[in-house]
Every structure is written in C-alpha cells, then in structure tokens.
Specification:
InterPro entries: DHFR-like_dom_sf, RibDG_C, Riboflavin_Biosynth_HTPR
CATH superfamily: Dihydrofolate Reductase, subunit A
CATH topology: Dihydrofolate Reductase, subunit A
GO molecular function, one term: 5-amino-6-(5-phosphoribosylamino)uracil reductase activity
Distance between the termini: 12 Å
Shape: globular
Number of helices: 6
Protein name: Dihydrofolate reductase
Strand content: 25-35%
Pfam families: RibD_C
Structural class: alpha/beta
Helix content: 25-40%
C-alpha cells in the first residue's frame, strides 16, 4: 500500500499562509528547499489542489529550463542543481489535481502528467491511490484538500516544518472539526536554520 504524505511549512502560531493566502511571510530557508526535494525523490505521485497546482505550474517549468530565474538561486548560485532537479521532478511525476474549476487547457507543459479529479470523487480517488503498491503520494500546499483527507482518515503521515515566525492571522493549518491521533516519529534540526522538523504518523489505518 502507498502512504499519503502531507509535507508543509507552518508558522510557530499554526498558520500555513498569512492573510489573503500570502505565503511570503513564512520562513523558507535552504532547508525547506532541500526537504522538498527529498520528499519528491521518495514520491510516486503528487496530489494537489488547484491553487497550489497553478502556482507550481506557473513557476517550475521556467526553473527547469533555467534555474537562475529562481530568486533563491539568484541569492545563492550553489543551489542551482537542487532547484533544477526539483523542477524536473515536479514535471516528471504523475500529478493528480482535485478541482472543479481546473480544465485540461490549464495544465500547460504538465498536460501529459496531470489527471484532474472532481471534488466529489476526491476521496474515492485517494483511496485508490493508497491501496495500490508504490511510492508515496505526496501533498504539497493544498491545505483545503489535505484538511478534508485528514478528516476522512486518508492521510498517513504529516511532515511539518515549523518555522520561526508568528503570522498572527491567515490560513490555519488545522481548523476546528478535524480530529486525528498522531504519533511522533521524529524531530530534527539543521545547523544554520531556526526551523524544527516534526514528523508524525496519523493513526487511522488499521494494522
């Protein structure tokens, strides 16, 4: 069976975005980029909501062609290979997008690797993804999507990079009404970063 792994950056006060969905106030250091690539290497499928998909599809194809267009690479050219590989893996991985608004015309350079699933069919589609043998089903961003999946018992792991920022308002990582029992798998830090990585198993799948 495959595991659905949610990997997200969260502020110390529990927000995954600021007011209006602004993610620029979240502390995205080099460790964040390295962790994302590590997760992509372990993934067999990307599972995304429409907003995150559109953001990624608008950004990463250009980085695959020329990593120097990435602001992070402009600040530190030594991370060019990391960003190039991230862009390539984002492009190559099969992507399942849950959306009632996205159309094939919106998939652009990722048309050949993208499957659109309507919201009414999302839980059944994710159940099918979990039940097949293979690598991780990886969720980046897509808070509305994974919140629904967590409530339905369809998330297996939560990987939270807790950043040293207090946003005060915005999109909460865990809104009311989503119960889940978590087991801590690991905690880690990286020299030079003030973030803390927390990895949890969601105790919903029967053994």
């Amino acid at each position: 069976m495959s595991s659905v792994v949610v990997s997200t950056l969260v502020s110390l006060d529990g927000y995954v975005a600021g007011p209006g969905g602004d993610i620029s106030r979240l502390p995205m250091d080099g460790w964040f980029d390295a962790l994302n690539l590590e997760r992509l290497r372990a993934a067999g499928t990307l599972l995304l909501g429409a907003t995150t998909y559109r953001q990624m599809a608008a950004y990463w194809p250009a980085v695959a062609a020329d990593p120097t267009v990435s602001p992070a690479v402009q600040l530190d050219p030594s991370v060019a290979d990391l960003h190039r590989e991230t862009a390539q893996r984002n492009a190559e991985l099969p992507k399942v997008v849950v959306s009632d608004s996205l159309t094939p015309a919106d998939t652009g350079p990722w048309a050949g690797t993208t499957t659109i699933v309507r919201r009414a069919d999302a839980r059944a589609a994710v159940t099918a993804l979990r039940e097949r043998a293979g690598a991780d089903v990886l969720v980046f961003g897509s808070r509305t999507l994974w919140g629904d999946l967590l409530a339905a018992g369809l998330v297996d792991e939560l990987v939270l990079l807790v950043g040293p920022a207090l946003l005060g308002a915005g999109l909460r990582a865990f809104p009311d009404g989503i119960p889940a029992h978590l087991r801590l798998r690991d905690t880690s830090r990286r020299p030079g970063s003030d973030s803390v990585l927390l990895s949890y198993t969601v105790a919903t799948r029967s053994s």
